[in-house]
Amino acid sequence: MNQKSKGYTVQEATKKIESYCAYQDRCHKEVVSKLKDMGMIPLAVDTIIAHLIEDRFLNEERFAKSFARGKFIIKKWGKNRIVRELKFRNVSKYNITTALKEIEPEAYLTTLDDLAHKRLLQITETNIQKRRKKLADYLLYRGWESHLVYEKTFELIK
């Protein structure tokens, strides 16, 4: 029997989703999507979500905090990109604000500086304006705030 046609009881689905959530923090949107893919009806989805929240398998604030920390530390994303990705996952404004507090201001600026220096070494363009544009585009794409990006770009490329 293939995975698509397999039906799950609420208990089976609950156990499967518990391990899915225990493996790493998940947002509500991911869990609902997974349950729908498993063929669960809306009433069962609601019941399972309520159980997961009650038993602390699902906690959106915890998810948002770990997401923000992880994307900042590992992928070196700026706050704009983190906010955009969390909004895409339907995380509440309150939880997004709380998650951004996980990022230390000093570490944030140090990371921007390191990222900008590293990227600048990779840019072979000789025209000053084009170098600035390439560096700025790279940093903006990664979600760094424009005022910080332009400040750093003009600081590094004179």
From TrEMBL:
One of its GO terms (cellular component) is cytoplasm. Residues 107-151 form the RecX third three-helical domain. Its main location: cytoplasm. It comes from the Bacteria. InterPro entries: RecX_HTH_2nd (IPR053924), RecX_HTH_3rd (IPR053925), Regulatory_RecX (IPR003783), WH-like_DNA-bd_sf (IPR036388). Residues 59-100 form the RecX second three-helical domain. It is found in: Cytoplasm. Keywords: Cytoplasm. GO terms for biological process: regulation of DNA repair. Pfam families: RecX_HTH2, RecX_HTH3. Belongs to the RecX family. PANTHER family: REGULATORY PROTEIN RECX FAMILY PROTEIN. This is Regulatory protein RecX.
